[in-house]
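batch_manifest entry 22 of 60
target: FZ domain-containing protein
source organism: Hypholoma sublateritium
requested by: lab member K.T.
priority: normal
notes from requester: please return C-alpha cells only, no post-processing; we will run our own comparison against the previous entry in this batch. if the run fails, retry once and flag.
--- input ---
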Amino acid sequence: MPPAVTTPLLSYLANFTTVLTTFACGRDWYSPLLGCNDCQREYRTWLCSISFTRCTEPSPANPAGFTATPAAPSATGISAARQAGSGQQVLSALVPQATSSTPRNPFLPALDEPYNALLPCLEQCNQVDRACPPFVGFNCPTNEFNGGASYGVGYIDSANGERGLGLTGAAQDRYGNVWCNLI
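--- output ---
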C-alpha cells in the first residue's frame, strides 16, 4: 500500500494506542470481560471500515435500493419499508458518489467515474465503544443525531440500539446481499 495511505492510518493507530496505554492495561482491568487488546482490535477494525471505501451496486432485484443522500440530521439510515401484507424490504446502505466528490478517506485518490459507496455499519463503531474503557472518550453518532449520514444504521442492532435485533440481524445474507460495510 502507498505510504500516503498507510502513514496517516498508522499515525491514528499509534495515537489511539498511546491514549489507551495511559491506563495500566497489563495490571488493572477496566472490565472483567474485556481488556485493552479487545479495545485495540475493535478500533483497528473500525478504522479500516471507515477508511477504505467499499464500492458495490444495488441488488438486481431492487435497482432503486439506495440510502437517501444527503441524509437529514435526524435520519436513522434504516432503509427498510414495511408494506401491508408483505415482509420487510431491506435496502443496502448505498450512497451514490459523483466523480467530483471527495472520497471518505481523503488520502485515497478520487475515482474517475461515479460509484456507489457502501456505508460502514454503525454497529462496528458501537463495538469499539463497548470494548474500550470510558476514559478513552470514543463516541459514536446516534440514530437521533446524524448517525444515518455516515453509517448504515439498524442492520445488526435495532434502531433503538438493542443488540442483535436489527432488520436483517447481519451485514450480509447467505445470498451475497450486503447491507452495510462490516469488515
